[in-house]
Amino acid sequence: MFERFKSKKVTYKIIEMRTGLFILFVFVLSCAISVEAQARKKGKAIEKEERPLQAGDRCPNFSFEDIHGKKVSLKALKGKYIFIDIWATWCPPCRDELPFLKVLEEKFKDKNIWFVSISCDNDKKKWIEMVKGDKLGGIQLHMGDDWSFMEAFGNRKIPRFILVDRKGKIISPKTTRPSEPETETMLKALKGL
C-alpha cells in the first residue's frame, strides 16, 4: 500500500516536471519566433535604408533656407526640371565648378529648369558672404549639418550634382559636372525643356 502511494507521488512529480518543461519549451520557442520576426523586419528596414537612391526613384523632399531665411522645398520646385548642386565654400572642387554653373544658368535661363545649389557649410555667415560676394545665381539654399538629403544618395562626397525631372523623380543621382561638355548636351536633350 505504501508502494502504491509512493508510485502516485512519483507519477505526479513526473507529470509536473513534464508540464514545466513543456511550458518552458513553448516560452523559449515563442521568444525565438518573436526575435526572428523583429530581426527580419529590422533587416528589411536596414536593407531599404542602405540602398542609395537611383534613377527612377522619387527624390526625397527637402526644406532648406535661402539667403533671406525663407524655407524652400522640393515640392515648391516641382513642375520644372531641377539641377541640384551640393557644395561648400571650403571645398576647392566645388568652387571650381561655380563659373561653369553660372554659364549653364545663363544658357538655360528661359528654359523649364531650376538650378538649385545646396550648401553644406556649417558657417552660414560665410556661405551668405560667398553667395553675395560671388553673385551666385540660381536658387541658393543652406542645409547646414542636416545631411539626411545627401545620405539618401549613399554618401557625403561633394561636389555632387543631381538631376530631377518635373515630377520629382531622379533622372541621375550623380550627373556630370557643369565643367563637362556632356552636361550641357544632356540638359539640351531633356524633353519639354
TrEMBL record:
GO biological process, one term: cytochrome complex assembly
Main localization category: other
Domain Thioredoxin, first and last residues per copy: 53-193
Pfam families: Redoxin
UniProt keyword list: Cytochrome c-type biogenesis, Disulfide bond, Redox-active center
Keyword Disulfide bond: yes
Record's subcellular location: Cell envelope
GO cellular component: cell envelope
PROSITE patterns assigned to the protein according to its UniProt record, in alphabetical order: PROKAR_LIPOPROTEIN, THIOREDOXIN_1, THIOREDOXIN_2
Signal sequence segment: none
GO MF, one annotated term: oxidoreductase activity
SUPFAM superfamilies the record matches: Thioredoxin-like
Domain of life: Bacteria
Protein name: TlpA family protein disulfide reductase
